[in-house]
Design a protein that fits this description.
It is a single chain. With about 300 residues, the chain is α/β, with parallel strands linked by helices. It folds into 3 domains: about 5-95, Arc Repressor Mutant, subunit A (Orthogonal Bundle), CATH 1.10.10; about 100-170 and about 270-295, Periplasmic binding protein-like II (D-Maltodextrin-Binding Protein, domain 2); about 170-270, Periplasmic binding protein-like II (D-Maltodextrin-Binding Protein, domain 2, 3-Layer(aba) Sandwich), CATH 3.40.190. Helices cover about 40% and strands about 20% of the residues. The strands form 2 sheets. Strands 1, 2, 3, 4, 5, 8, 9 and 10 form an 8-stranded mixed β-sheet that branches. The protein has a two-stranded parallel ribbon with strand order 6-7. Strand 6 (about 200), helix 9 and strand 7 (about 225) form a beta-alpha-beta unit. Helix 1 crosses helix 2 (about 20-30), helix 1 (about 5-20) packs across helix 4 (about 65-95) and helix 2 packs across helix 3. The protein is rod-shaped.
């Protein structure tokens, strides 16, 4: 059976060797000299060899045996490895190091998270962050496959996701998006039936209408565009109109108009999604707590 080497005993050995005496090592360790002698004796018993030459006088300097000289760099290596692991775990527990992975729907990824992440990592130079943005289905798949620590998305039919914990944070209203010179652009609100008179482009968020009286719009759409950049380009070119949640609407656009859908009034809830049977890493939990705190303000 291999000996169980205690880090404290290894430190005592290194200090005695480097300081050339048990008394000096005892002062450094804030222990009594007999306690250090006992610690070294126990270490020697575990190793099966003496580490220090026998001394004839108390004033003589402590010298290493050949075995002790061979063991000294090994002991230092063990101590250094222990300290590196301990420091890494301490930093990880304090969310100051490690690798954080999250995924989010593009609307929150572009409109909300940049400011939050900038504040969160301000004093965490050793924390690595991998950030993915995709639609809700893709975000959920990454959470399920444990490719990310947690996701930020909308849950279609929350009752079908008993294996996940969903914490809603943001809520936005669904509206119609069209060019500012479109016939519907001057309205304060639109009824879903008005949209049937125009070329409709559906997208990944159009499913939000599926459980409402506006469901017929899904079959009325002539085009489907999944990529938000392509969708906005087609809208700006006057290709048609679409429905989008408020957070997904490009507010910097000078050519498009958002008009709330008043009949039916549809809202989307976006929040944090994690697996119910998996604990978050300390950095991930810290970010979740930080997002919740920031959302309150």
């Amino acid at each position: 059976m291999l000996p169980e080497l205690k880090v404290a005993q290894l430190r005592h050995f290194v200090w005695v060797a480097e300081l050339k005496g048990f008394h000096a090592a005892a002062e450094k360790a804030h222990r009594t000299q007999p306690a250090i002698s006992l610690s070294i004796r126990d270490l020697e018993n575990k190793l099966g060899e003496g580490l220090f030459e026998k001394r004839n006088a108390k004033t003589a300097k402590t010298e290493l045996t050949p075995f002790g000289k061979y063991f000294l760099p090994k002991a230092k290596e063990l101590i250094a490895h222990h300290d590196r692991v301990a420091e890494d775990m301490m930093l990880l527990s304090e969310h100051k190091a490690g690798h954080l992975r999250l995924a989010s729907v593009p609307s929150i990824a572009s409109r909300v998270l940049p400011d939050i992440l900038l504040k969160f990592v301000a004093d965490l130079p050793s924390l690595h962050v991998s950030f993915f943005d995709d639609n809700s289905d893709a975000v959920l798949k990454m959470v399920e496959n444990q490719q990310v620590d947690f996701g930020i998305c909308h849950l279609f039919h929350e009752e079908d996701h008993s294996d996940k914990v969903f914490t809603p944070i943001w809520e936005d209203r669904i509206g119609m998006v069209c060019p500012k010179d479109h016939p519907l652009a001057g309205k304060e609100g639109v009824h879903w039936k008005e949209l049937r008179k125009h070329r409709l482009i559906s997208n990944g968020t159009s499913r939000l209408l599926g459980d409402t009286e506006a469901r017929p719009l899904l079959g009325h759409s002539q085009f489907y565009v999944s990529n938000m950049i392509s969708l906005i380009a087609m809208l700006e070119a006057g290709f048609g109109i679409t429905t989008l949640p408020w957070y997904a609407f490009p507010q910097e656009s000078t050519t498009l108009q958002f008009i709330p859908l008043i009949t039916p009034e549809v809202t989307r809830r976006i929040g944090i999604v994690k697996l119910s049977n998996k604990s978050l890493t300390p950095p991930a939990q810290a970010l979740v707590d930080f997002i919740l705190e920031q959302s309150k303000s």
